[in-house]
Amino acid sequence: MSASPTYSPPKAVAAEKSGAVVCAVCSSSQSAGEAAANLYVCLACGAHARISAHERIRQLADPGTFKVWDVGLEGSDRLGFFDTRAYVDRLDEARIRQHLPDAILSGAAQIGAIPVGLAAFDFGFLGGSLSTAVGERLARAIEASAEARMPFVCVTSSGGARMQEGVFSLMQMAKTVAALHGLAERHLPFISVLADPTMGGSIASFAALGDVILAEPKAMIGFTGARVITQATYEQLPAGFQTSEFHHARGLIDQVVDRRELRPVLTQLLRVLSAPAGDIEQSAA
Amino acid sequence: MTGVEGDGSATAQEMASAWAQVEGARHPDRPYSLDLIARCLDDFIELHGDRQGGDDAAVVIGLAKLEGRRLAVVANQKGRTLEERGRRNFGMAHPEGYRKAQRLFALAGRLQLPVISFIDTPGAYPGVAAEERGQAWAIAQTLEAQLALPTPYLAVVIGEGGSGGALATLLADSVLVLEHAFLSVASPEAAAAILFRDAGRKQSAAAALHLEVSNLLKWGIADEIVPEPPGGAHTDWDGTAALLRPRLVAKLEQLVAEGVGPVRRRERYRRLDGLFQA
């Protein structure tokens, strides 16, 4: 793990604050300042817009506490992959556009003055897909948190395994689950926050294994996407299929939390889970 | 589809080679798990149910012996007849199938039985009921159960190794792959739908994903390619089993001798892609 002593969000995050923001659900328009102040939750309909990893960190970490991990760690094009475009070109473009080396940003932070490992997926970076570099950065973040005896919080927004890295992407499911054991053996909590969308290989590995699982309202969550299910089975999809609320009603998610309540809820959870010195969990570790 | 498609993605030869791998693995006369279990293992006794209310026939679990050694067995099972295909759901498990596998891993740990898994699935079942009952959660928990297994664990990909559904019984100490089997992040059809927005371009997707079995060895995901009889496994089930059985015996002996367990297994899958070793 290499920690950068200072983290300043790229100008791209500032750019999210200029110009009007139009809700993708109800099309109502908000000023940039209003939208940012309301954490990109639509003031008219409550829809939670997808936000960048940098914006997510800004919303959750105590100001000035985020220290980014593994700044230079990038993946590569193992398969020489070409679909309709070269994968290397897609990667380069995403890196510049999203100001990230790959689809996840991780680091040490404080939430409500409690030190945590914090990771956020970036859906704008190739659909937040799980690549070798994303898997590695996530595994290292988990390990760094365990090493520092900190709880780990991950906000996932990911379409699943990245096709362009083939079977290497598939194996990241195993890698991240293997890394999570480091937290478990030190009796440290993993809080998994599911944002829109959390699908495929991401929810079928680390994201489903949170000691506590929270989800933002109306996030799409599931193994197979609705369109593929319909094409494969011709089944009628029930109302609200694969939303956070759907899974919460079936006992798969602990709480559906409005983004504006996410920081207070995380703070409370972390406070309740913080072990005092000499506590049984710490002496057992 | 003939010739290259003009996008530089793959030559006709690359597509033909990758697609042959897929067609071989999917051949309707190919031996399925129970066919190979009957020919490779002794005294197989099937067990049923996940002990939580379901018994998914797409996953078979049981006990057996191999050269006198006690074993626990978990396998994906496809159907041969129309009726059996429906009952086995074409080898695509629901959450109950993955929970059945978890039960098997727990049982193996308790009774100190090594595990052999046989992988042959297009993937986890993409259906409404599967999602309602927590398909993703069931797979994730099965990944964790495999990594926690205290006993030696050997996996054999005998046909299709599709996606997360295959991974649920793949995370072994040693992975064998039959010559005409494959392992993929998604079915070529699904990958084509995602990459080209056209499931029909499955041959291009197969080529782009480099599904040739030799790559799995090169990349360290598989430990050994097990040859099939001339003409392929579908021409000679007994011959296939005769080639596979000694490899199962040898690999299992090796794993038992090495005393493998969760520490080494987690390390294998943590470091698998061989990147970032700086």
What do these coordinates show?
The complex is a heterodimer of chains A (285) and B (278). Chain A is of the alpha/beta class. Chain A folds into two domains: 9-49, no CATH class; 51-284, 2-enoyl-CoA Hydratase, Chain A, domain 1. Helix content of chain A is 37%, strand content 16%. Chain A has eleven helices and ten strands. Chain A has helices at 11-15, 32-37, 53-60, 87-98, 132-147, 166-185, 200-203, 226-233, 244-249, 259-273, 280-284, and strands at 21-22, 29-30, 67-68, 104-111, 114-121, 152-158, 190-199, 212-215, 221-222, 255-256. In chain A, strands 3, 4, 5, 6, 7, 8, 9 and 10 form an eight-stranded mixed β-sheet that branches. Chain A has a two-stranded antiparallel ribbon with strand order 1-2. In chain A, strand 5 (114-121), helix 5 (132-147) and strand 6 (152-158) form a beta-alpha-beta unit. Chain A is globular. The model of chain A has no long low-confidence stretch (mean pLDDT 92). With 278 residues, chain B is an alpha/beta fold. Chain B has a domain at 31-152 and 160-179 and 237-269: 2-enoyl-CoA Hydratase, Chain A, domain 1 (Alpha-Beta Complex). Helix content of chain B is 44%, strand content 18%. Chain B is built from twelve helices and eight strands. In chain B, strands 1, 2, 3, 4, 5, 6, 7 and 8 form an eight-stranded mixed β-sheet that branches. In chain B, a hairpin with a 2-residue loop joins strand 2 and strand 3 (69-76). In chain B, helix 1 (12-25) crosses helix 9, helix 2 crosses helix 11 and helix 4 packs parallel to helix 6 (135-148). The longest helix of chain B is centred in the C-terminal third of the chain and has 22 residues, at 237-258. The radius of gyration of chain B is 18 Å and the shape is globular. The termini of chain B are far apart. The chains are: A alpha/beta (285), B alpha/beta (278). Chains A and B meet through helix 5, helix 6, helix 7, strand 9 and helix 8 of A and helix 5, helix 6, helix 7, helix 8 and helix 9 of B.
